[in-house]
Amino acid sequence: MTTTLRTPKVQALLDRLFEAAARDQSVSQDPSASALEQAEANSGVYMPISASGGELLYSLVRASRPSTIVEFGTSYGISTLYLAAAVRDNGIGTVISTELSERKIAAARANLAEAGLDGQVTILAGDARETLSGVTGPIGLALLDGWKDLCLPVLRALEPELAPGALVIGDDSSFDSMADYLRYVRAPENGYVSVPFPVEDGMEISCFTGC
After folding, report:
1. Cβ-contact 81, 111 below 8 angstroms
2. Distance CA 161, CA 164 (A)
3. C-alpha span between 59 and 203 (Å, rounded)
4. Which residues in 115-152 are b (16+ Cβ under 10 Å) and which e?
5. Cystine design at 173: which of 50, 88, 123, 204 (Cβ 3.0–4.6 Å)?
6. Would you kindly state where each structural domain of the chain is located, as residue ranges?
7. pLDDT > 70? residue 95
8. Per-residue model confidence (pLDDT) at position 82
């Protein structure tokens, strides 16, 4: 049976987006800049997950069938397309994503509409520490793929709404800026069982035990 991910329309769109992302300029990082200033400085940079990371996300959503998925860091919507395709094929669930850059929000919404998957996704505009504070659970899967120094604060904010057994995926786990996040999810007393997965730049897959 053909999945949404394998339809010519979605596959062609992903191919085009990955080709554009391959031409990405370097990420601009200024420790003195605000989150909004950094988002605007990098509004033309895709910063996507890898294709294999996207396939992994799709598979995890298909297997776990979460009713609510939260994504921190929409960017141009590449990872969101994988999540939305899985939700469509499951026949259940919704994706709530958040992004600070207005340019990226517009592009992501256009990409989702082109794929015919915009009905599966709500994109919240603004700082994730504020936009996600109103999300109610149970959250069955969370993808943390925004600014790396904010992944842990965002996770801590989402924890009260995580369902027991929820999957939390931290992308780019090989980055030095993910060290605090990794220490947290790998410490058993914090309620996670966590393993690294060897896709490009690494993904940390953590199961929230609810304890």
Report:
1. yes
2. 9
3. 14
4. bbbbebbebbeebbeebbeebeeebbbbbbbbbbebbb
5. 204
6. 4-21+33-208
7. yes
8. 97
Question: 162-171 and 203-208: which strand pairing?
Answer: antiparallel
Write the pLDDT tens digit of every residue in 60-88.
999 999 999 999 999 889 999 999 999 99
**Using one digit for the tens of pLDDT, what is the confidence trace for 157-166?**
999 999 999 9
Whether residue 146 is predicted with pLDDT greater than 70 in this model: the reply is yes
Query: Which residues have C-beta within 8 Å of that of residue 95, sequence separation ≥ 6?
Result: 69, 70, 71, 80, 83, 84, 87, 120, 121, 122
**Cβ 150 vs Cβ 157: under 8 Å:** no
Cβ atoms of residues 110 and 84 within 8 Å: no
The model carries a pTM of 0.90
Cα separation, 11 vs 30, whole angstroms: 35
Burial of 157 (0-12, 13-18, 19+ CB in 10 A): middle
Q: Tell me if residue 29 falls in helix, strand or coil.
A: coil
CATH architecture of 4-21+33-208: 3-Layer(aba) Sandwich (3.40)
Q: Please spell the DSSP secondary structure of 62-98, one letter per residue.
A: HHH--SEEEEE--TTSHHHHHHHHHHHHHT--EEEEE
Residues 6+ apart with CB under 8 A from 100: 35, 36, 39, 125, 126, 127, 128
